[in-house]
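The methods section describes the discrete structure representation at length, but only in general terms. What matters is that the chain and its backbone geometry are given together, residue for residue. Nothing conveys this as quickly as seeing an actual entry. For illustration, here is how one protein appears when written out as sequence plus structure tokens:
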Amino acid sequence: MKLYRTDLAMERTVHPEGPGEGIRLEEQKLGAMTTTWVRVETEDAARRIGKARGVYWTLHHPALPSLGPQERLPVAREIVNVLTRMLPPSGDVLVLGLGNRRMTADALGSRVSDRVLVTRHMKEGRFRPVSAIAPGVLGVTGIESAELTRALAEHIKPAAIIAVDALAAMDTEHICTTVQLTDTGIRPGSGVGNHRAGITQEAMGVPVIALGIPMVVYASTIIRDGLRHILADEEGENADAMAEKLAENALEDFVVTPRAIDELVDGLADVLALALNTATQPQCTMEELAYYLH
């Protein structure tokens, strides 16, 4: 339905008859964590679910927002394992912290970039060259993030770009509990209907890995979930239709975020930054990097 926008590929594949041809799904349970691989293999499948061809990996942990520093390490390690597979084995890495740092629910990218271990200026051979920047948003800078990124890429010639951004989800259970990694790049704002120029390999000339966590959900989605609970004995389509009717006009563009978003963003930024630092600097232990993060 048009009201339920999402950046998560796994949510786009949910259908009573399965994901359909051209899409492969693999799910694995790791203790409290659930990891899902979504591989969009054909252009027809990409058009059907509205996601580019490529690989999408998600990690869901229902208690992720409340995990302590030591409890976050297994989550960070799982992210490192996948990120390492997607990254080229050598060469400079440019980390982009996307979003508006003045809006807490959209500040995940900038807070992660602030915590990245930048090493491009160092002459020691021990560290892989990494640079990080938070380019801001068009409404603040007057410049598209994609334009700034392309100019930077042409100048520093990274082997890969990692774009970090806050995402939107279609299921309230995925807010602040789910990490998505993809090799397809990113189109900032697409999950909330604010489409911006894409930061992709085709546009930048180098591989672009997108990393994010859903921080917002539409009010219409919350209405739908509430109605599904109330109408537990009814068909799900009834709740969808009623939610669309209730949310029409007044609530269609309302985006909701958790009340404790300030604390949540900081904790989740720590998890992503720790994973990024470990994946780009494998000669350091995660424990060392966690210590220097603070």
